[in-house]
């Protein structure tokens, strides 16, 4: 199956450019792969915690059995998950989950927050891997990846929001994967209203593998390709244009906040600052008056480096020059969009290091919200 | 049904003591109430946005109809909610919902965070009201409360955690309500493992009504009592001891953080700082080394005043004197608990105003977590 995701961040200690590495990887001619799997995992050895002596062995087996009972991670492909309300559809490759927008997932306007939507993307990606029977660790790595000491790192994420779901709304969230170059994976999502079928949001992301020990990007091993490729489909949620180059902001940026620091509660189960927190930091610089009038309709994130829990982070953002020179009356016309560039970086004594660059597009909020304000 | 909750905070602009008011209310002799409802809302007029002229009327009706289609709030009692996986059980009064702990609801140790548990309490309370057909607004007020311009305010919340659910674990979360004195309501919760039936957590809370215009606490009107009382049951999730008096901390407290301020993303759909954020602020002062070794097993919150989005908040906490004098070797014994007192207050130019007082109890974390760390 599909694998995916999980901690939306390029990892730490990469001393060279992730972008350059990805470019290099996409040029590599890999041996033609041999499909050894068909989505079933019958050939996959059940992974147990490594053991060093007899007594720890027993304890660890007990722990893993307890974990298995409580968490119930399947070791073979499942088609229906009644608890998560998920199912595998479309010839066994696409994952669909029903979700209801909860009371604490909405903001003051009673529509789902951007953070909630990003959280749901993460959740369904992991559940897709879970359903595949391939989940080798908590971060979306397959058994083959675990055997090869590999983890996923995300290099790019784009989310387009047509409309925001409201509190209590029932949604269908679909996700699927495809090949991205020779060594990468694309993961897409589509979020619809269950009642009307109307699309609320679409997203796409690109993933590469990194060796956990060397912290270097890796080619996709054949055994991992055999696990993943039966799940790959061509369909794309967002048609790719030639990606526009994102300029790098500096201290002259119009809006900025420094001294952001991860709190204990910002760390995810990978002990990293979560991608969703990054987006929160990015948007914290936006002026209040702007956020009251505009809503985000597109965000593109390019990940460069992970931020550790002790890093001090600076968030910069700047509206496009053309927005600023546009006459206010024009800007307020329905359909007129405003664009911003963003940068999160760590402030080092010697040099700053980029964590993520972003581009956001904003449109005027509907004058009539689904709820009286 | 039951009503309950939603924004876990006493409201703003109360110029007198909430505690005193609650005391006064509990002494009032109210006329014996007349049960007019039986949980059905056939007699309840459907609420529409108030209208001032013909054109807005039409627009508002369209809006309300759209909202109804998208959100689908029932106007009569429902017994099963397939989307939220909720049902009304136990002679039609207790609400049970199945929930799965999601990947972003756990911390670095892969167990559900305190914030996630509190969020789920809020969510199930609201869904209980939703199922009752009595939901009059987004904050858990009944139709009768909306007609009387009343809202819920929470005065006390206690949560006991036996054990923390892990990532992917399937839970049964039950909630129900009872009378609290003459004019208040008690809402309780019980959180169990679906697989084993073991109780993870229990919670209880006390609610009173406040007039939205005058910002004064209110007696429970007969029509509201008629809506709520058919849902009241005696059973309590946590047996009440005589509540211990919480001392008020001052600037001499051992740990403290000042200049906390709500961010845009901290505001809930009631435009207030959410209770869960309060708890986050409260625990932010706790030392890292302590939090690595200990886990919270009991928290009691006493709400005094709501904090506005522009308030600057100070968080203070202090371990009990007896903890500090206890020998370290004793403290580390399994079962030895550590207690803290907490205070959140706004720092005013003239005087500080209390938002919430808290007491927490902590025990050593299990040496063996369900996941390898």
Automatic annotation (TrEMBL), chains A, B:
<keyword id="KW-0934">Plastid</keyword>
<protein>
    <recommendedName>
        <fullName>Acyl-[acyl-carrier-protein] hydrolase</fullName>
        <ecNumber>3.1.2.-</ecNumber>
    </recommendedName>
</protein>
<keyword id="KW-0809">Transit peptide</keyword>
<dbReference type="InterPro" id="IPR049427">
    <property type="entry name" value="Acyl-ACP_TE_C"/>
</dbReference>
<dbReference type="InterPro" id="IPR002864">
    <property type="entry name" value="Acyl-ACP_thioesterase_NHD"/>
</dbReference>
<feature type="domain" description="Acyl-ACP thioesterase-like C-terminal">
    <location>
        <begin position="253"/>
        <end position="364"/>
    </location>
</feature>
<keyword id="KW-0378">Hydrolase</keyword>
<dbReference type="GO" id="GO:0016297">
    <property type="term" value="F:fatty acyl-[ACP] hydrolase activity"/>
</dbReference>
<comment type="function">
    <text>Plays an essential role in chain termination during de novo fatty acid synthesis.</text>
</comment>
<feature type="domain" description="Acyl-ACP thioesterase N-terminal hotdog">
    <location>
        <begin position="94"/>
        <end position="227"/>
    </location>
</feature>
<dbReference type="GO" id="GO:0000036">
    <property type="term" value="F:acyl carrier activity"/>
</dbReference>
<dbReference type="Pfam" id="PF01643">
    <property type="entry name" value="Acyl-ACP_TE"/>
</dbReference>
<keyword id="KW-0276">Fatty acid metabolism</keyword>
<comment type="similarity">
    <text>Belongs to the acyl-ACP thioesterase family.</text>
</comment>
<keyword id="KW-0443">Lipid metabolism</keyword>
<keyword id="KW-0444">Lipid biosynthesis</keyword>
<dbReference type="Pfam" id="PF20791">
    <property type="entry name" value="Acyl-ACP_TE_C"/>
</dbReference>
<keyword id="KW-0275">Fatty acid biosynthesis</keyword>
<dbReference type="InterPro" id="IPR045023">
    <property type="entry name" value="FATA/B"/>
</dbReference>
<keyword id="KW-0150">Chloroplast</keyword>
<dbReference type="GO" id="GO:0009507">
    <property type="term" value="C:chloroplast"/>
</dbReference>
<dbReference type="InterPro" id="IPR029069">
    <property type="entry name" value="HotDog_dom_sf"/>
</dbReference>
